[in-house]
Each structure stands twice: as C-alpha cells, then as structure tokens.
Design a protein that fits this description.
By secondary structure, the chain is of the alpha+beta class. The chain has two domains: 190 residues, Periplasmic binding protein-like II (D-Maltodextrin-Binding Protein, domain 2), CATH 3.40.190.10; 148 residues, D-Maltodextrin-Binding Protein, domain 2, CATH 3.40.190.10. The chain is built from 13 helices and ten strands. The strands form two sheets. Strands 3, 4, 5, 6, 7, 8, 9 and 10 form an eight-stranded mixed beta sheet that branches. It has a two-stranded parallel ribbon with strand order 1-2. The chain is globular, with a radius of gyration of 20 Å. It holds the Pfam family SBP_bac_6.
Length: 366
C-alpha cells in the first residue's frame, strides 16, 4: 500500500546537488552522548494532532529525558519553516529550528540553497524516497480528503465537483494558506487533477480556476480550517490530509459527527520530508531525533496517527505492525487511485499556486 516509487517520484540531477560533505561517521552511542550534552532540540511545525506527533514527541522525551524539546510555531507552513532557517543562520538561540518537517517539494529546493545538513540515519536503506546524500528523506504520506461535519452537511460530497453545488454555500475551507502551506498548495493541485481529467500538465491552472469558481459561488470560506472551526460550523467541510481528518474524528468523538471522504477522482498523495537545518544549534540532538523518527518505534507512532510511514512495507514484511493498528487504517482500496506527483510536478505546482492565487482566486486565507 506504500507506493513510493522511484520512477514516479523522480528527482532531477540538479535537485540533488550536494551542498556540503557528509559529516564524519559517528556511532549512535556517540550521538546520544553528544545530544545529551547539547541538552535541547528545537522543532517547528509539529502540531500535536497531526500524524501522531503528540505520541512521537512524548516517546522521544521518555527515551531521552535529558533533552528538552523546544517547540516553535506548531501551525507553521512549509515555507515558514524554510524561512525560519534562513532568518536564523547566525542565531544559536531558541528561535533557530534544528529540524523541519516539510512538503516533499521543499526538500530539493532547500538542498540547492544549502540550508540542509546531510545525515544518513541507521535505517536509511529502508527509506524509499530520499536524497541519496541524506539531506532529506520522506517520512510519511497521506491522501487529501474531505472532512465533513454531518450535523450541518446532510448530503456529504463525494468528489471535487460536488463542492461547487449551491448547498455548500459558505462551507468549504482549506487547512492552510495556499500561498505558503504545502497541504493547501497540493489541495489546489488535487482539485485541478480532478477538473482536468487527470492531466497533470493542466492541474495547476485547472485547480486555480476551480477555487476561483468556488470563491465566486460563495462556497469558499477564507479561513484556515481546523477541528475547532469544523465543530463550530464555521468551516463544516475542510479539505485536508486523511490522517488529520481521521484524528479529528476520533478526538471529537461524535460531537459533532464527522465523516471522512476520499474523493472519487483527484486522489492525491502527499509525502512529507524530514531534514536537519545546516545551521542547527543542536546538530547531534537533531540527528538523534531523526534516528528516533525512523526507528521502529517512531514509524509505528506515525501509523497510530493514521499516516503511512516511510518504512511501512518493511515493518509489515517483518511482522512488526500490530494488527490493532492495521485494523484502524482506512481500507486499502481507498488508496488505489492515489497519484504521487513527481518532485518536478510538485515544484511547478508550488510556483504556479503561490504565484497565481491572489490574482486568480483573490481570497485572502488566514
């Protein structure tokens, strides 16, 4: 079910330019001791209700209590994370992130800019999508879905075109600002894939046109959708990653009732990548954090949050995934139509959406 595939997620040679030499080899024990001496890890953009991060953060703290986790802006978008690295190049204080969790398209561009520190975790060989020199690697993926408050929305939309119907006036929101947040940027692409009949070359333009129509019809709500706004009825339909929507469904526990729908077309899978800042104030704590994330324990933490982790196939083949976790995941057939856009396609879409949203759609999402 984990469909990372080299031919689909191809990376151009230019996108993999090496910006610095691989650091000298350290044993895990040496990294642990050095990280404990540093005593702190600064993360950014890790909301506790996203993809199991709450449990993963708790697991790391329990395993390494000597290391304090300093959490910056949990609601930051991928572009915000990259800007935080740029803005803190000479800063060793608490505002400089050590590690980032960004949309896949931000990995190669940040590597070319020299913003990421190459490091290969001990489970590197089992990771399917990665920079060969270890500047970044895919951590998990999900598909974009509709999260629906069925107390308010009685006729649940089943596909993107349904969202244009008049019964969804003042109802549809994105889970981020499409000028900065990877989730929202890819939501535009997914809508465009559906509108363009699966033609990736037309997806960005068609996606912007779709949201222009959605806005003109009065169906689009220019508010960043969250579980709270869903429950309050401000944004009764949110386009967001399936794992976030499923986690909200559990958290809200029927108040209000939530239905999560993977659309019939335009099923887009998004991969998020992990990386270490080239200017990390705590580089050894950062390495230890990645070691934990890509360990069996960390990978199962993603699964508990409804995400498909990088080493999913390997863990299943080795019988390391408890059946109770597998039983809570959506059925495999929901993902059979999932499209994994290449890095080149994602990068082109990111430029088209961030550059064209204001002029085409004209909705200030905040």
């Amino acid at each position: 079910m984990f469909k990372f595939a080299g031919k689909v997620l191809s990376v151009t040679a230019a996108a993999l330019m090496v910006t610095s030499a691989i650091s000298s080899a350290q044993s895990l024990d040496e990294i642990v001791e050095a990280a404990k001496k540093e005593g702190m890890l600064t993360t950014i953009a890790l909301p506790h209700d996203w993809c199991g991060w709450e449990g993963i953060l708790a697991g790391f703290k329990a395993k390494y209590p000597e290391i304090t986790i300093n959490e910056l802006n949990p609601d930051a978008g991928s572009a915000d994370e990259i800007e935080a690295i740029r803005a803190n190049k000479g800063n060793t204080g608490p505002q400089a992130p050590d590690v980032i969790d960004v949309g896949l398209a931000f990995g190669p561009s940040s590597t070319k800019e020299g913003l990421l520190l190459p490091y290969k975790v001990s489970t590197f060989d089992g990771i399917e999508v990665k920079d060969p020199d270890g500047h970044w690697y895919g951590g998990y993926y999900g598909v974009l879905a509709f999260e629906v408050n069925t107390d308010i929305v009685k006729e649940v939309p089943q596909d993107w075109a349904d969202l244009l119907k008049p019964e969804y006036a003042n109802s549809v929101a994105l889970a981020g600002d499409p000028r900065a947040a990877n989730q929202a940027i890819l939501s535009v692409y997914a809508a465009g894939l559906s509108a363009a009949g699966g033609d990736a070359s037309k997806a960005s333009e068609a996606g912007l046109d779709f949201f222009k129509q959605l806005n003109e019809k009065g169906n689009f709500v220019p508010v960043i959708g969250k579980a709270s706004s869903l429950a309050q009825g401000t944004t009764p339909i949110i386009v967001r990653w399936d794992y976030n929507a499923l986690a909200d469904r559990d958290t809200l526990n029927g108040n209000p009732p939530v239905e999560v729908v993977v659309p019939k077309s335009g099923v887009l899978a998004g991969v998020y990548a992990q990386a270490i800042s080239a200017y990390a104030p705590h580089p050894n704590a950062a390495k230890l954090w990645l070691e934990y994330i890509y360990s069996d324990e960390g990978q199962l933490g993603f699964l508990k949050g409804y995400c498909h982790p990088a080493r999913f196939n390997q863990l299943v083949s080795e019988g390391k995934v408890p059946q109770e976790i597998l039983d809570k995941l959506p059925p495999a057939e929901a993902y059979t139509k999932a499209v994994f856009p290449s890095l080149e396609e994602q990068d082109a879409n990111k430029n088209a959406v961030t550059g064209g949203w204001d002029s085409v759609v004209g909705a200030n999402v905040q």
